[in-house]
Amino acid sequence: MEIDVSMENDSLSIPVENPFHLDLDAIMGKIDHFVSSKGSGLNGLDIKGLLPGMVRGVAGCEEGCPANALEFVDSGFKDFALSYIEGGILSAKAVMENGKELAIKMFPDF
């Protein structure tokens, strides 16, 4: 599984070895460093809460039916605009307080 974080024209790719045992602190450290390098801060965006929901939506898509992904998108998550992209990809976008858009995509591993 892979997490892609993008702002402006730059992106950060974070490989996830075991999506059912996320090292959220390590992932958050990388995301925070990336966002800081763009002159922004996470300022209350609950990415740490978002990522496990995205994993539940994406993991298991190897079998076909994206029911969990679609359910997650339909229910929404806080300040994020969620969408399902063909191929089992989940996308979450949020506008940060400085007006910049932060996009997080989660790609299944198949």
What does this molecule look like?
With 110 residues, this protein is an alpha+beta fold. It is built from three helices and five strands, in the order ββαααβββ. The protein has a five-stranded antiparallel β-sheet with strand order 2-1-5-4-3, with helices on one face. The radius of gyration is 13 Å and the shape is globular.
Question: Features of this protein?
Answer:
110 residues, alpha+beta, five-stranded antiparallel beta sheet, 28% strand
Report the sheet with the most strands, covering strand number, pairing sense and barrel closure. Answer: 5 strands, antiparallel
Low-confidence stretches: none
Q: How do the strands line up in the largest sheet? A: 2-1-5-4-3
Integer-rounded radius of gyration: 13 Å
Structure summary, number of beta strands: 5
Mean pLDDT: 89
Query: Which strand-content bin applies to the residues?
Result: 25-35%
Characterize the overall form.
Answer: globular
Assembly state of the chains shown: single chain
**Helical/strand content category:** alpha+beta
Along the chain, the helix and strand elements come as: EEHHHEEE
* Spatial gap, N to C terminus: 8 Å
Helical coverage, percent range: 25-40%
Number of helices: 3
Give the secondary structure arrangement, pairings included.
Elements: E1 2-7, E2 10-15, H1 24-37, H2 47-58, H3 67-75, E3 81-85, E4 89-95, E5 101-107
Antiparallel strand pairs: 1-2, 1-5, 3-4, 4-5
Helix pairs in contact: 2-3
